[in-house]
Amino acid sequence: MRYIHKLPVFLLTGLLLLLSGCSELTVLNPKGPVAESQRDLIMYSLIFMLGIVMVVFILFTIMVVKYRDKPNRKEGDYKPNLHGNRKLEIIWTAIPIMIVTALSIPTVSTLFDLEEPPESSADQEPLVIYATSADWKWFFSYPEQGIETVNYLHIPTDRAIEFRLSSADSMAAFWIPALGGQRYNMAGMQTKLYLQADEPGVYKGRNSNFNGEGFTEQIFKVYAESSSEFRSWVESTKNTAPELTQDKYNNLLKPGLLGTMEFSSTHLQWVHHGTSEGADYSVERHRDAYGNQLHLDNGENHEHGPTGKEGEH
């Protein structure tokens, strides 16, 4: 009992220790406009909901203290009549609506804003990068530059990046916490994600959707650098990296872990990344979720079995 009076001190100390670790959370230390918008939305939601919790606990304390059973309380002193009380019914109906509205409006507004490239780099066209997941690695194709990397990528700072996401087999989720939230990679379709880095650095990316034994190692690094450094890296890769052949790409798709690689060509010329509008290359074939090659010719699919050379996975 002698420690009861120290309980507020213990609670305050624990809260300070908990909040002191927030600076280590990557999502609360954004490095680009998309991540900043999402950080602001997270903080708004947390503060708003903490305010609701405080109001509830204050009202709860008032009710417990004011209407607690006392030795001198007379029977019948407190007989609330809530049935048919229109004022109370309006209050406890309107308050939840107001809470949901206050949370929904900024959330929906932010989600719609993030479907477009960040305004801070509107003077430049977004850099298009195809991010293809496979068990358990990442392929990054640069159609404008004609190069491709495995398990790492370089991006210029202060320029929007338009990631076109798809999967060669199981579903994954592309996520670079320092630059923005995750979006799913799915076989047979393509999704878009706009991100941007405002600060040079090396950022960690990963698959945030569990997809088997190699899930924890399906990671990659993002090298954000100046435009001149990015162009130098592109030229160096084009001049020194080997060409990516179709047989090589099919072999790399087999389930397993890989190190970093780079190629002076991309797989986009022969692999279809989904049926969504906006694909700017010819449709020839892609792998289904089981690794079988699907040839697309005039809308007809012809499946090669897993025993064939092209069907091996």
Automatic annotation (TrEMBL):
The keyword Acetylation does not apply. Residues 292-313 are annotated as: Disordered. The chain crosses the membrane at residues 41-67, 88-112. Keywords: Cell membrane, Electron transport, Membrane, Oxidoreductase, Respiratory chain, Signal, Transmembrane, Transmembrane helix, Transport. Residues 297-313 have a biased composition (Basic and acidic residues). PANTHER family: CYTOCHROME BO(3) UBIQUINOL OXIDASE SUBUNIT 2, CYTOCHROME C OXIDASE, SUBUNIT II. Belongs to the cytochrome c oxidase subunit 2 family. This is Quinol oxidase subunit 2.
